[in-house]
Structures are given as structure tokens and as C-alpha cells.
Design a protein that fits this description.
mainly alpha, 2 domains, 8 helices
Length: 181
Amino acid sequence: MFYLGLVLFFGTHGLLLWPPLKRRIQSTIPEAAYMGGYSGFSLAGLVLMVLGYDSSFEISVPQVPSMYSAAPSVMFVAFWMLVAANLPSWTKSVVRHPMTVGIVLWAALHLSVNSNLHAWLLFGLFAVLVLLSALTAAQRGKARADQTPKLRFDAVALLIAGGLTALTMHYHGAWFGVAIL
């Protein structure tokens, strides 16, 4: 179930990073069917990954237990980048791919403290997917929007990141079964 979820989620996202394939699919079916299929496969993949996730498949990889104490700082920066990527902020203006930075930080943090196969596949594939997305952005015509950055959006991003970090640190155990604090 977990592996089928990986294929559905990452396959859907990964294949569409290839512009000729994406154009062909979009020219073959109506926009609503394309978006519905994309969303449906992605959601089905996420559900299957959650239902099939099993942390008992241990692999031999080095762990960095000290990252647990760094988790609040790393997650704050990751959330800040994720939020700033969606606002006309100075952060977005300066950091070329803030969403990529945020997801890679999130994935690297999880990889540094997990030694199970499913965690490595899940977080590793997220990191690979966003890095490929950033590397192929220009090819896919994903030019940066020219927006005038405003400092207030940086403040909003920082405030939201602080709130998300506090919630995640407090509820991580209840939500994901692994307490951080």
C-alpha cells in the first residue's frame, strides 16, 4: 500500500515535470479532467502512504540525534520559506526557490533522525522531487513573477512560521506518533 502511494503521488508529480508529457496530457483531455486526475492521484497517493507507512523496516544509516534539539529552529526556517514562497516578500525576492529550500530542510531534518526505510523513501523522494522541480523550472516556463516585495509580508511569513512551528512542536506526537518535545 505504501509503495503504491509513493508511485501515485511522486509519479504524478514527477512525470509532469517533463514539459512534453504535460503538454500532451493537457491537449488530450479537458482542463477539469486534468486537474481532477492530478488531484485524485495525488490524494490517493498520500492516503496510501499514510495508511501503509511502517517504521519497523530499519535500515543501516547514520542518525544525528542532536537534530531533535535543532528541530524547532530548522522547522521555523522551513515554515518561513514555505510561507514566504507564496507571498510578495523580500524573502521570496532574495531566495530564488524558497519553497524548495523549505521542503529540503524539512526532509533533511527527518532523514537525519530516522533509520527506517519508509521514512527514507518518503522524505528522500520529497527532497528529490522539489530539487528536480527547481532545476527544471525555467525549462517548464515557470518564470518568477515580478512582484514588488513588501516588508509586511516578510513579517506575516515570520509570524505564521512561528505559529506553525509552535503547533508542530507541541502536537507532533499526537499527529505523527513521534513526540519532539
